[in-house]
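Structure catalogue
Derive tokens from sequence
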Amino acid sequence: MLAAYHISKGLEAGVDEAGRGSYAGPVVAAAVILPKNFRHPFLNDSKQLKPQKREELRVLIEAESIAYAVAMVDHTRIDSINILQATYQAMHEAIGQLKQRPDRLLIDGNRFRPYPGIPHHCMVKGDGKYASIAAASILAKTYRDKFMQELHTEYPLYGWDKNMGYGTAAHREAIAKHGLCIYHRKSFRIVQEGPGLF
């Protein structure tokens, strides 16, 4: 069972992202404040869960959280400011949208750009340790997957309904054959030269 809180006093918001390493589409971040008594046996790092279980937990998290928010930074902004800064921006936007201000932030990972006025703790592999970070990882992942499935209907050549924009063998083969489309992250230098964008 994941830990409910890092520090028992006050409210903690778990913060995590999805899509940082993807070749295409946005990076999505979520922030979640859970009640101190929130427990669920299947709550875990979103990458360890099957899609149906993630979706079930998303509904539960949204219903039972004290507050939650999801924010998205698109591929053009990623190319403009780089993926690390875009990830921080998405996290900050999610935190700023919370209807309840937390007393501290639990950030998945080893670095973060401080959010004004709220102390934070970086937690390596925190989505497998703390319930609020796991909840944030589930919201970020489910929201981003849904968005990539919508983009798939516009550009079905790349199989984004299955790979969600990540650099799978099938995705790389499609890029080699068809080139990049407008939703690919050009700053990632996926191909040095190739067919034009479409």
